[in-house]
Amino acid sequence: MKEQLGEIFIEDMEFFAFHGHYDEEKFAGNRFMVSIYLYTDTSKAEKSDNLDDALNYQVVYAIISDIMRHTKSNLVENLASNILDALFTRFPQLHEARIRIAKLNPPMGGKIGRVGIEIKRNRSEVN
Fold it and tell me: Rounded to two decimals, what is the model's pTM?
């Protein structure tokens, strides 16, 4: 069977969490928006129509939700890296991933809709 690389995505997952450099962010919390793009061989799932042959995005959401809600990072860069590490560990069939994390209404002294980070990593870059 020929490998068929597909993109699985979950966009605009919103979480209330306590990530940030400043004490007020760690105490009061903030809203975050997360989008994930996962690149994996979809050929088997395309033919079988069986969830066991697919990269289960319900599990992806559960991993992201757990990290967002139950860990604390000073920087969104660290948060994004931790999520990618967990996904590459859980899904050996994952070839590449791209994550975007935005902090909504960041406390920066002015009206700002969001700030964030986007990181792209492939399997060969995983330690």
Answer: 0.91
